[in-house]
Design goal:
heterodimer; A: Ubiquitin-like (UB roll); DNA polymerase, domain 1; 2 domains; 5 strands; about 15% strand; globular; B: Aldehyde Oxidoreductase, domain 4; Aldehyde Oxidoreductase, domain 4; 7-stranded mixed sheet; 5-stranded mixed sheet; about 25% helix
Chain lengths: ~160, ~750
């Protein structure tokens, strides 16, 4: 079965005629060519495909695209602040919270959602907000530091 | 050297611009999938692909008969069939029996379901100890023994005769999964010239090329492997995954084909960390001097050889720890089973044997009534020691400094209390804390007589920039920054003037496998020496022009200074070109020669050393273990990029923590139970402890600027440091990984609750 939906992604509106079984992740990558959102577990276990759906972080592999009709989606490609990086991105680059980089866009989106909700989160709040984003390379310590730095709390 | 350099690819990775293999698209791209046997041991009796072929959208269905060249691939032994044919044997659930290429991935998936495969089941062998029994089912006709590995030193009978205390214990470690975040993906396409290009994130591009070429019956030059960014490897992207399948389908259809694994297929198919059973017998004098060490290891190598023999050799040679032991006997049986194959995984067998011997050392210390740090210090390898394989260590042995500095930090953080005695958490009588400590060593480089070489090309351009080229892989560890720093240092160029091109078998010379913590040392030296040759060529050109000896040319920040003139490097390059001189050089660097196991001499050209101490908090009622702090000292020879080094330490510790407490890849009778990521229990950010890194620098004479490997050693002692801490907190000795929480709670309940002292 197919259905028409309207989706605003990174500020651009799209009208899409989609098989109702397709996921938001699939549509972002394969219809809109937004390859910054990564497919890793396809089961909501790892957080690599995290995007913001109406400002809330979701694992896009678990969201049916047709359920997003009329929604606003923000992916990592839509994050830039003016000409530069978003503070979370900048902090990750500087602290070294990136290695292979496959989890990074999802991690960034979860952190951005956290800082949107809470300007100065505690370390426990940072851990709780990023608990669904797995990283196999960094050990997470520098990611915590990066979020703290982005929140202006770095020591 | 030694200053912080951010990753050159960091901005692309953080903005989503970075491209991994699955992010590539080509006109006319088909989607390839493999039908997996799903049975652990069987004869393939019948295969009918007719219905799959008839499905609209299916472009090709291939079976074993369609392979034009050799059926088998493998990094050491070619024993792994790209496809199992009718009448042939399936040896594990992940064996492929047919390939489909279709216009869309969903169609390919649907086509797999239409393939009819019938199997005649065979008895399954799923345990390496069982596999060695005379009546065990045979995985391969040649027998189940992949390799019996032996280490002999002194006279083991004599050693135990001298011993005053003998400890004899058996430990078990489970199969482990790399869980790199990016599942395997290969894209193959034919070029107009009739060559095949394969885009893949691989740790060994040239080995991929050769294995693809053999199966396709092509000369290797007809295959080009183009490395994409790699979303984690940890040893799990050394073997062939979808590369050959994609190439076969591209060859058969004439169209580009993407073979992308979903997580289920990734978990099922690629080689794992060996499950082991390790017996450790240690003989010691009452004063703590080790006199004899005997070990017996069984390694579950699974269905195919992969790097199993090499991994278990490393497990065996490191199985008596980084200690001076006059009498050693170690035997390892690397066994074939019907489990998924085992191969390379960060630590390369030493992760397992370090857990065994470092648990045994703690038990021995208790038996002797001796401080566990003191027991290790007394026996630690140092310059002048001879290893269990007969290697005289002549330099770069920083183990004692690692031990001293970790102990000092641990005692400082313990505030004068005995770190190895349980402390009840104030206000939480159910929770106790204690420290544990372990040491480790790990070879840098292939060793054991294997030729270990890397080639690198360095070219200068008239715009004053340089490009470094080598096939080595950036798997997240930070190699690009290291090679960039080395070339910049040697060419006296600002960092941003140096580009690094990796992993393209047409454009980059062979840097060798990205394994064995070898890239900084081996390829780093190739880049250093290639840069030197280029610099000398520039100096020669300028020396002739200004009539000075070449030594009179000095290089400073992108300028060549000669006879009072300052010539920008780009101009010097233009002069060279005008004279018909090439401003580039390729250097093939050979690491120092090593000797095969059993022949004595230098089995490895360098070792890294480490000590870690972990503080745990155990809930005595629930058995929950939390790691609070880890002090990690690593002797890395010389620091090149502190940021990359820290990343390796923190990531390594976290992987060791998962190895100790949560991770287990469960296989029952050859059937994979851990078939989705959530079932693997890889640690999340919630479990991250405070990590206190201590850098120890005992330089090697030959490594670049004195450096040696860090990628593996950082992860190796973490697990026994944690399990030793669990013992100190609870009195429960962990002999089987991971620490099962329910088991620990039951064991604690059987003992008297430890008292705060």
């Amino acid at each position: 079965m197919k259905q028409v939906i309207h989706l605003t992604v990174n500020g651009d509106s799209h009208e899409l005629y989609l098989d109702t079984r397709r996921t938001l992740l699939d549509v972002l990558r394969n219809e809109l060519g937004l390859m910054g959102t990564h497919r890793s577990c396809d089961a909501g276990d790892c957080g690599a495909c995290t995007v913001l759906l109406n400002d809330l972080p979701v694992t896009s592999c678990l969201v049916l695209a047709v359920a997003c009709d009329g929604a606003q989606v923000l992916t990592v490609e839509g994050l830039r602040c003016g000409d530069g990086l978003h503070p979370v991105q900048q902090a990750l680059v500087e602290t070294g919270g990136i290695q292979c980089g496959f989890c990074t866009p999802g991690m960034v989106m979860s952190a951005v959602a956290l800082l949107g909700e809470k300007r100065r989160p505690s370390e426990a709040e940072i851990r709780a907000a990023l608990a669904g984003n797995l990283c196999r390379c960094t050990g997470y310590g520098k990611i915590i530091q990066a979020v703290q730095r982005a929140a202006g709390e770095a020591t | 050297m030694g200053h912080v350099v951010p990753r050159p690819d960091a901005v692309a990775k953080v903005t989503g611009a970075a491209r991994f293999a699955d992010d590539y698209d080509f006109p006319g791209l088909l989607h390839g999938r493999a039908l997996r046997a799903g049975v652990p041991h069987a004869i393939l009796k019948r295969l009918d692909v007719a219905k799959a072929k008839d499905l609209p959208g299916v472009v090709a269905v291939l079976t074993a008969e369609d392979i034009p060249g050799e059926r088998n691939h493998g990094l050491v032994i070619h024993d792994w069939p790209a496809l199992v044919g009718v009448g042939e044997k399936v040896r594990y659930v992940g064996d492929a029996v047919a390939l489909v290429a279709a216009e869309r991935r969903e169609i390919a998936t649907q086509a797999l379901e239409l393939i009819e495969a019938e199997y005649e089941p065979l008895p399954v062998v799923s345990d390496p100890v069982q596999a060695r029994q005379p009546d065990a089912p045979l995985v391969h006709e040649s027998g189940n023994l992949l390799k019996h590995i032996k280490v002999r030193k002194g006279d083991i009978e004599e050693g135990f005769a001298q011993a005053e205390v003998i400890l004899d214990e058996v430990y078990h470690t489970p199969t482990m999964e790399h869980a790199f975040m990016e599942p395997e993906c290969s894209i193959a396409r034919l070029t107009a010239e009739g060559r095949i290009e394969v885009y893949v994130g691989s740790q060994i591009p040239y080995a991929d090329r050769d294995q693809i070429a053999r199966c396709l019956a092509l000369p290797p030059e007809k295959v080009r492997v183009i490395g994409t960014l790699i979303g984690g490897g940890f040893g799990g992207k050394e073997d062939i995954a979808g590369q050959i399948h994609a190439a076969l389908l591209a060859q058969a259809t004439g169209r580009p084909v993407k073979v992308l694994y979903d997580r289920h297929e990734s978990l099922l198919v690629h080689p794992k960390r060996h499950a082991t059973q390790i017996r450790v017998r240690l003989g010691v004098k009452r004063d703590g001097t080790l006199v004899a060490a005997q070990t017996e290891l069984y390694g579950d190598s699974g269905a195919y050889a992969s790097l199993g023999e090499k991994v278990m050799t490393r497990a065996t040679t490191h199985s008596t720890g980084p200690y001076i032991v006059p009498h050693v006997k170690a035997d390892c049986y690397a066994m074939y089973t019907n489990n998924p194959p085992s191969g390379a995984f960060r630590g390369f067998g030493v992760t397992q044997s370090c857990f065994a011997v470092e648990s045994a050392m703690d038990q021995l210390a208790e038996r002797l009534g001796m401080d566990p740090v003191e027991l290790r210090r007394k026996n630690a390898l140092r310059v002048g020691s001879v290893t269990n394989t007969g290697q005289l260590l002549t330099e770069s042995v920083g183990l004692l400094e690692c031990i001293d500095r970790v102990e000092a930090e641990m005692r400082r953080l313990s505030g004068g209390r005995d770190p190895f005695k349980p402390q009840v958490v104030p206000g939480a009588p159910n929770r106790v804390r204690a420290w544990g400590l372990a040491v480790a060593f790990k070879n840098t480089g292939l060793g054991g007589g294997a030729p270990d070489k890397a080639s690198a090309e360095v070219e200068l351009f008239t715009d004053g920039t340089a490009e470094v080229r080598t096939s080595s892989a950036e798997i997240g560890q930070g190699l690009v920054a290291v090679l960039q720093m080395i070339a910049a240092e040697e060419l006296s160029l600002p960092l941003e003037k140096v580009r690094v091109l990796l992993s393209d078998t047409d454009l980059t010379p062979d840097g060798g496998p990205t394994t064995a913590s070898r890239q900084t040392y081996v390829t780093g030296n190739a880049v250093r020496l290639a840069s030197d040759v280029v610099r000398q060529a520039v100096a020669t050109t300028l020396a002739e022009k200004y009539d000075v000896p070449p030594e009179g040319v000095r290089f400073v920040e992108g300028l060549a200074q000669v006879n009072g003139h300052s010539v920008p490097l780009g101009e010097a390059v233009a002069m060279m070109k005008a004279e018909g001189r090439e401003p580039k050089a390729t250097y093939e660097y050979w690491a120092p020669k090593t000797q095969p196991l059993g022949t004595g001499g230098d089995m490895h050209f360098a070792y890294s050393f480490a000590t870690q101490a972990a503080e745990v908090e155990v809930d005595l009622e629930t058995g929950e273990v939390r790691v609070l702090r880890v002090i990690a000292a690593n002797d890395v020879g010389r620091v090149i990029n502190p940021l990359g080094l820290q990343g390796q330490i923190e990531g390594g510790v976290m992987m060791g923590l998962g190895n100790a407490l949560t991770e287990e890849f469960i296989v029952e009778e050859g059937r994979v139970i851990t078939d989705r990521l959530a079932r693997y229990r890889m640690p999340s950010i919630v479990l991250t402890p405070q990590i206190i890194p201590i850098v120890v620098e005992h330089p090697t004479g030959e490594g670049p600027y004195g450096a040696k490997g860090i990628g593996e050693i950082s992860s190796i002692p973490t697990t026994p440091a944690i399990t030793n801490a669990v013992y100190h907190a609870t009195g429960v000795r962990v002999k089987r990984l991971p620490v099962d929480q329910d088991w620990l709670a039951r064991e604690i309940a059987r003992r008297e609750r430890p008292q705060d002292v």
